[in-house]
Specification:
This protein has 144 residues and is an alpha/beta fold. The chain is built from 6 helices and 5 strands. The chain has a single domain, classed as Rossmann fold (3-Layer(aba) Sandwich), CATH 3.40.50. Strands 1, 2, 3, 4 and 5 form a 5-stranded mixed beta sheet that branches. Helix 1 crosses helix 6.
Length: 144
């Protein structure tokens, strides 16, 4: 999902794609906008994403206000709570949501399905590309 969004935005803006464990406060300070992508695990954002927010929240508080963000969530059944968690953090940072969260559901409900490698269907990846392109275009044109 993140790779599809990033690739679609590369023609319009300077896109940096980082995993949560590799990203930090400096990355947030250097960016003009954010597309947060995370899986939902046990009705919450993934541990790595939560740890990224924990490490980054206070160092950038009051320094990134008004910047645009959107989010992509991959969930087994619902995804709404993960989206709410990220939105609450973004609210604390005073970010501007430029699109409602895109929640893609894999319907993985058994231990085997949950642990299996996931494949996002092409039509769902296209939605990710659309969001990535729209975010990049909005930043490039100064819309946000």
């Amino acid at each position: 999902m993140a790779e599809a969004a990033a690739e679609a935005g590369r023609g319009e803006a300077d896109v940096v794609l980082k995993t949560a464990d590799q990203a930090g406060p400096d990355d947030l300070l250097e960016a003009d906008g954010y597309l947060f992508c995370a899986p939902e695990n046990l009705a919450a954002i993934s541990g790595l994403m939560k740890e990224f927010f924990d490490r980054s929240y206070y160092p950038v508080l009051g320094k990134i206000e008004g910047r645009p963000y959107a989010q992509l969530v991959c969930a087994g059944s619902d995804g709404a709570n993960a989206a709410r968690q990220t939105a609450r953090i973004a609210t604390g940072w005073r970010l501007k949501e430029v699109q409602p969260p895109l929640i893609l559901c894999t319907h993985a409900q058994t231990p085997e399905a949950i642990l299996a490698e996931k494949s996002i269907p092409e039509d769902q990846l296209e939605k990710c590309r659309e969001i990535g392109a729209a975010m990049a275009a909005g930043l490039s044109l100064g819309v946000f």
